[in-house]
C-alpha cells in the first residue's frame, strides 16, 4: 500500500503539493501542485471537485498571499479536471491550459513555456497514459512534473504501449533531478525511476513471449505441464498453443491476488497488440486467442 501523504506539504521553495482528497485503494489520491514564489502562481491539475481540496486551496492561497494565474492540466482524466469549476470560483481570472483543450480552455503545445516568479515550466507532449498527456520540465530545479506517466507508487496504466514507451524514452532523455508525479510521493531520482518503468515494460514483453513459446515462465515445459498451467489441453507441439489474455495473466501473475487478474489483463492485451505490430505474435480473431508467430518459434 502507498504511504499516506499530508494533505498540504511544501516540497521546495517553489512547490506546494495539495492532495485532491480522493485516496484510492492502491495509489494515493491525485496530487495538485501550486508553483512559484510571488503573488501570481501556476497550478498543475485540479483534482476532481472534492470540498476538502477547495478548502485546502483557499487556505494555502491565503497563507501565501497569492492567487492562481494559470492552471496547467496534464490530461483529461476526471481526477485531474473535475476541480476546474471550483478553481474558477476561487480564482475567477485563472486561465486553463490543456493539450486538446475543451471549450473555454487554451492549448498546451509541445515545447510551450509557462513562467511565473521562481518557476519556468516547459511542456512535453508525452502521450501514452492518454493521447493528450503532458509532462513539464521545471527549469529552476532540474525537475519534472510527470503527470500519470510515471507515479510515485506502483506503475502506470496506458492506452497504447508503443506510444507510451516512446514517451518514456523522451522523458528519460530529458530527466535530471527529482520528479513530481500525478500520484504518490516525490521521486528523488527521476531518470532512475523512468529507467525502472521502461525495464518493467520490457520484462512484461519477455514474459508474454516466454509463456507463448514454452507454456510457462519457469523454463522448457512438457505439453502436460503447460496444459496444467493453463487449465486446457495443448498440442504436442508446445509452440503451437493459443492463449487468451486471462490465461496469460494466470501464468505470469501467479503471485498476484485473483481479483487483480482482470485489470492486469488490460496491460497484457496492450503487450500483445505491440508484439503483433512487430510481427512477433499472431491473433486468432474468432477465438480471441494469441500465439507465437512462426518466425519467433524456437527450433525443435
UniProtKB/TrEMBL annotation:
<dbReference type="Pfam" id="PF00753">
    <property type="entry name" value="Lactamase_B"/>
</dbReference>
<dbReference type="InterPro" id="IPR001279">
    <property type="entry name" value="Metallo-B-lactamas"/>
</dbReference>
<dbReference type="InterPro" id="IPR047921">
    <property type="entry name" value="LACTB2-like_MBL-fold"/>
</dbReference>
<dbReference type="GO" id="GO:0044550">
    <property type="term" value="P:secondary metabolite biosynthetic process"/>
</dbReference>
<dbReference type="GO" id="GO:0016787">
    <property type="term" value="F:hydrolase activity"/>
</dbReference>
<dbReference type="InterPro" id="IPR036388">
    <property type="entry name" value="WH-like_DNA-bd_sf"/>
</dbReference>
<dbReference type="InterPro" id="IPR041516">
    <property type="entry name" value="LACTB2_WH"/>
</dbReference>
<keyword id="KW-0378">Hydrolase</keyword>
<dbReference type="InterPro" id="IPR050662">
    <property type="entry name" value="Sec-metab_biosynth-thioest"/>
</dbReference>
<comment type="similarity">
    <text>Belongs to the metallo-beta-lactamase superfamily. Glyoxalase II family.</text>
</comment>
<keyword id="KW-0479">Metal-binding</keyword>
<keyword id="KW-0862">Zinc</keyword>
<protein>
    <recommendedName>
        <fullName>Lactamase-like protein nscB</fullName>
    </recommendedName>
</protein>
<dbReference type="GO" id="GO:0046872">
    <property type="term" value="F:metal ion binding"/>
</dbReference>
<feature type="domain" description="Metallo-beta-lactamase">
    <location>
        <begin position="29"/>
        <end position="183"/>
    </location>
</feature>
<dbReference type="InterPro" id="IPR036866">
    <property type="entry name" value="RibonucZ/Hydroxyglut_hydro"/>
</dbReference>
<dbReference type="Pfam" id="PF17778">
    <property type="entry name" value="WHD_BLACT"/>
</dbReference>
Amino acid at each position: 500500500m502507498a504511504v499516506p501523504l499530508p494533505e498540504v506539504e511544501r516540497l521546495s521553495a517553489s512547490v506546494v503539493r495539495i492532495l485532491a482528497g480522493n485516496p484510492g485503494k492502491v495509489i494515493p489520491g491525485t496530487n495538485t501542485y501550486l508553483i512559484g514564489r510571488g503573488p501570481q502562481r501556476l497550478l498543475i491539475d485540479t483534482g476532481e471537485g472534492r470540498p476538502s481540496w477547495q478548502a485546502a486551496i483557499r487556505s494555502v492561497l491565503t497563507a501565501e498571499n497569492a492567487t492562481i494565474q494559470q492552471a496547467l492540466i496534464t490530461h483529461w482524466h476526471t481526477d485531474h479536471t473535475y476541480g476546474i469549476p471550483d478553481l474558477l470560483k476561487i480564482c475567477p481570472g485563472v486561465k486553463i491550459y490543456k493539450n486538446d483543450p475543451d471549450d473555454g480552455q487554451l492549448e498546451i503545445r509541445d515545447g510551450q513555456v509557462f513562467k511565473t516568479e521562481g518557476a519556468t515550466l516547459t511542456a512535453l507532449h508525452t502521450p501514452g497514459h492518454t493521447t493528450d498527456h503532458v509532462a513539464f520540465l521545471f527549469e529552476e530545479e532540474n525537475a519534472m512534473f510527470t503527470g500519470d506517466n510515471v507515479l510515485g507508487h506502483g506503475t502506470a496504466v496506458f492506452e497504447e504501449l508503443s506510444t507510451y514507451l516512446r514517451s518514456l524514452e523522451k522523458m528519460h532523455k530529458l530527466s535530471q533531478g527529482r520528479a513530481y508525479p500525478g500520484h504518490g510521493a516525490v521521486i528523488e531520482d527521476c531518470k532512475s525511476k523512468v529507467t525502472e518503468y521502461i525495464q518493467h515494460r520490457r520484462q512484461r514483453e519477455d514474459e508474454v513471449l516466454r509463456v507463448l513459446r514454452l507454456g510457462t515462465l519457469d523454463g522448457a515445459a512438457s505439453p502436460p505441464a503447460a496444459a496444467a498451467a493453463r487449465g486446457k489441453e495443448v498440442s504436442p507441439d508446445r509452440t503451437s498453443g493459443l492463449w487468451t489474455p486471462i490465461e496469460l495473466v494466470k501464468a505470469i501473475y501467479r503471485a498476484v491476488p485473483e481479483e487483480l487478474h482482470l485489470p492486469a489483463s488490460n496491460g497484457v492485451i496492450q503487450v500483445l497488440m505491440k508484439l503483433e505490430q512487430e510481427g512477433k505474435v499472431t491473433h486468432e480473431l474468432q477465438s480471441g486467442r494469441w500465439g507465437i508467430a512462426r518466425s519467433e518459434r524456437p527450433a525443435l
